[in-house]
Amino acid sequence: MTGFLFELTFLLAAPFWALMILLPGWSWTRRIIASPLIALPVVLIYAALVIPAFGEVLPAVTNPTLGGVRDLLGTADGAAAGWAHMIAFDLFVGRWAWLDARERGIPHLVVAPILVLTILLGPLGLAAYLAARTRWPLPAPTAPELGALR
Length: 150
Prior knowledge:
Elements: H1 2-22, H2 27-33, H3 40-50, H4 54-62, H5 66-73, H6 76-104, H7 108-120, H8 122-133, H9 143-149
Helix pairs in contact: 1-3, 1-6, 1-7, 3-6, 6-7, 6-8, 7-8
C-alpha cells in the first residue's frame, strides 16, 4: 500500500503543475488554481501515512534530532510521508507563485522555469521566485479600489 501511495502522490499533483506551466492562459486554469484545495488530495495521502504512526512521528518532530529524523524517514512509510509532505508544500508554494505572478504581470517565460525548479527543488524554486518578483511590483490600486478600502 505504501508504494501505491508514494506513486499516487505526484500523480495527484501533476495535473495542477501542467495547468500552471503548459496552459497558463486557459480560462479554467485560473479557476482551478485559485482554490487552495488543489493540495488536499496529497495532504490526505500524507495524513493516511502519518496518523497511523503518530506515536513515532510526534516525538521526532517535537524534539527533532538528526538521528531521529533519519530513522523516521529511513522507512518506506517515512519516506512516502516525507515525499507527500514535500509534494503538498511544493504545490502550495507553486500555486502561490503562479497566482502572485499573474497579479504582478510577470511574463510566463519567467515563471514557467521557476515552477519547474519548484517541482524539482522546492525551496530553490521559492528563492528564485522571491528574487524574480522584486522586478515586478504590484500595480498601484485604482480609484475605485481605493474607495473600497475606506
